[in-house]
Amino acid sequence: MMILAITAIKARSVALAGFGLDSLIEIGASAVVVWELSSTGESRQRRALRLIAYAFIALAVYLLVQSTWVLASGHRAAHSPAGIGWTAITAAVMFALAAGKARTGAALGNLVQGWPRRTRAAG
Hints:
Structural class: mainly alpha
Strand content: under 5%
Radius of gyration: 16 Å
Oligomer: single chain
Largest sheet: none
Shape: elongated
Helix content: over 70%
Number of strands: 0
Low-confidence stretches: 119-123
């Protein structure tokens, strides 16, 4: 994670920073899913889905603000071979983890199983 943060700062790249924040949110969302699966109850499932949704809404707001600033200022990010490599590796890992989460959720008959589908679709 630190590699991505350093790479994003060095390249002054909103996209890399957004990807790093998304990765943090994915980790947090995974923790929420584990917490949610440790007990039963519809209200707990709704709370878990809401926590995940709020995290992604916060990311969307950050990206909207930063992207608007970048476009308005005419800023251009530097090329980042390290960022490209890191993104390729983590994308492959994220697809594998999303597939595992979907299988686990389906086996448990859990509502939160729909969350990994968003991950697979967005990559």
